[in-house]
Write a structure and sequence with these properties.
595 residues, alpha+beta, Heat Shock Protein 90, five-stranded antiparallel β-sheet, 18 strands, 50% helix, flat, disordered C terminus, ATP-binding, EC 2.7.13.3, transmembrane helix, kinase, coiled coil
């Protein structure tokens, strides 16, 4: 009897052993999932911080160059016009504070000059950002304000920007909105500086606490620079946080991941409650216990059947089992029906995708062939006029151009086929200046038609690169034509192309003095079928195709706003030789409408 009970106990023991194995396995999977999520969130938060930094980095440089802001340094005393200018700049840029300091560190002009706690007259020569700026370097420092007591990121530049500095231009960026956004996200994230002091946190109670006990020398440096005012800077945990995967803070255990921000030695930390890595434990134990109970119930039922309990119970169980089987058969049939419908829907979706691909390629063909066709019409018209005048020499030259364009159109159709298969274009070593001149010939009729000037600045030194020349010409034709269209409405429309070699990289800048691209549309300008040419019938494919071609060639294509107006498209391609440097002399070419 005892031996039979031992045999009956084997299945529950095996279930319990399997539960332990599954718990360990799922805990490892949950930890991997949490770590992946932490890495993704850290990347997002890092980009957010760097985006905020890049947004305001240009301001100190602009102020340092503007005589309206630096006039107070030359006079050696506060100037109301400088204060008003800084106040207006702060209102327009969204910066927290803007101010100018002399070479002793005394503030002579500030955007809050009318406030009760004005920075004018205050001396901040002890701040590291001022010391860096007065040495001619870019100053960066996060600290609590010595006058207002509000934290922020201080960015400084020397003024003048070249030569011996006589002062510094400073912008203070308020990082608290970024911190508030973290808190609204409901996640536990914080940033620490190079000394391990937490200065940004989704949990306010952790702000200005440290990851470990600060050495006396570090604490003395912080006190000297008054970086965190009178904060106590106590450790947030009894154990060091920097190298630990599991940390305990305020009695709660977290799984810890960190990533370098790449700015001032900052580090981002992402904490996930350890319960999230153990969320599979309870379900597994619940299933195990349920299976054990089911096993016990089955044993009891079998024992009851062996004891031949009432036939009524047996018949009832048989009826229940039959009903269950009937429902199961019905569910299986329903599932098969749904699978058939799903398969048919998938086939219909595949057909729709193929039709959409055909439509997009057709639109791309129309868009890319319209430009060479326009050039063909202009050359044909010119050839007729030259033949009427008896100028057969010029007519023959035009026919050669026409022959070259039709050959380009034939090659262009092949390139559009390769648009879906980027790796098929022929790569060769070329002088990029020749591709620029070829593109200029293609768009020349458009510039003559619009009356827009085209100014090209090409270096005397060859711009050698290994690339697909026809694809480069496609990009340049699209960018030059767009520039002509944008500047056409201006009284003196102008498009400028500058080619130069910078750090083993060929950089082409194509700018115009047109109306520019609104900020809210700048992120969508490279989307397929998105166009700002509502009146000229633009199809929105040129920039999308150009962006993809640039990336296929190992380069990049970006856009920014020109000053005072217009847009600048920047195309970069890798150069062949790192030691090459372009000559300072350039070749200027101007095109205007024929009179």
């Amino acid at each position: 009897m005892s031996k039979s009970w031992l045999y009956l106990a084997i299945p529950p023991l095996l279930l319990i052993a399997a539960a332990f194995v599954l718990i360990q396995l799922f805990m490892d999977l949950d930890e991997d999932s949490v770590d992946r999520k932490a890495a993704e969130r850290l990347t997002l938060y890092r980009q957010t911080i760097l985006g905020e930094y890049q947004k305001y980095r240009y301001l100190p440089y602009m102020i340092a160059r503007d005589p309206r802001a630096t006039f107070a340094l030359q006079s050696g005393r506060p100037i109301e016009s400088a204060n008003r200018f800084l106040q207006e700049m702060a209102d327009n840029s969204g910066a927290d504070l803007l101010y100018v300091m002399n070479e002793d560190g005394t503030t002579l002009a500030a955007s809050n000059w009318q406030d009760e706690l004005s920075l004018v007259g205050q001396n901040y020569g002890f701040r590291p950002y001022f010391k860096s700026a007065i040495k001619g370097e870019e100053g960066q420092f996060f600290a609590i304000g010595a006058t207002l007591g509000e934290p922020g990121l201080f960015l400084a530049r020397p003024t003048p920007v070249s030569g011996k500095p006589i002062g510094a231009a400073v912008v203070k960026v308020d990082m608290r909105p970024l911190e508030a956004a973290w808190a609204e996200g409901g996640e536990t994230v914080f940033a620490s500086d190079e000394n391990g002091v937490i200065f940004l946190s989704s949990r306010p109670e952790w702000r200005y606490r440290t990851l470990s006990e600060l050495p006396p020398g570090v604490r003395q440096t912080i006190n000297t620079t008054r970086q965190y005012a009178s904060q106590s800077l106590l450790p947030v945990s009894d154990q060091p946080v920097i190298s630990s995967e599991l940390v305990t803070i305020d009695g709660n255990m977290f799984r810890h991941k960190s990533a370098e921000v790449g700015l001032l030695g900052w580090t981002l930390h992402f904490l996930v409650p350890v319960e999230e890595t153990r969320k599979s434990v309870l379900p597994i134990w619940a299933v195990t216990i349920t299976l054990c109970l089911v096993y016990v119930v089955i044993l009891l039922v079998l024992r009851g059947r062996r004891l031949r309990k009432t036939s009524v119970q047996l018949r009832q169980e048989s009826a229940d089992l039959k009903e269950l089987n009937t429902r199961l058969v019905g569910e299986i049939q329903e599932r098969r029906r749904i699978e058939r419908e799903l398969l048919e829907a998938q086939r219909g979706l595949a057909r729709s995708n193929r039709l959409a691909a055909v439509g997009e390629m057709s639109a791309a063909v129309v868009h890319e062939l319209s430009q060479p066709l326009s050039a063909l019409r202009m050359f044909v018209a010119g050839t007729r006029k030259f033949l009427d005048k008896g100028d057969t020499g010029t007519a023959v030259e035009n026919l050669k151009e026409i022959d070259g364009i039709q050959l380009r159109m034939a090659n262009l159709t092949q390139e559009l086929k390769r648009f879906a298969r980027p790796g098929e274009s022929r790569i060769e070593k070329i002088d990029l200046r020749e591709s620029i001149r070829t593109a200029e010939k293609i768009v020349r009729p458009r510039f003559e038609e619009t009356g827009v000037f085209l100014k090209m600045e090409l270096p005397d030194t060859a711009l050698e690169t290994e690339t697909a020349p026809l694809r480069v010409e496609q990009i340049l034709v699209n960018l030059l034509r767009n520039g002509a269209d944008a500047a056409a409405a201006e009284g003196e429309g102008q498009v400028r192309l500058i080619a130069q070699l910078i750090d083993n990289e060929i950089r082409l800048e194509i700018s115009d003095n047109g109306p520019g691209i609104p900020e809210d549309l700048r992120e969508r300008i490279f989307d397929p079928f998105f166009s700002t040419k509502t009146s000229s019938g633009g199809m929105g494919l040129g920039l999308a195709i150009s962006m993809r071609l640039a990336e296929d060639l190992g380069g990049s294509l970006s856009v920014r706003t020109e000053t005072p107006k217009g847009a600048v498209f920047e195309l970069t391609l890798p150069a062949i030789e790192s030691g090459m440097r372009p000559s300072s002399q350039t070749q200027d070419m101007d095109i205007e409408a024929a009179e």
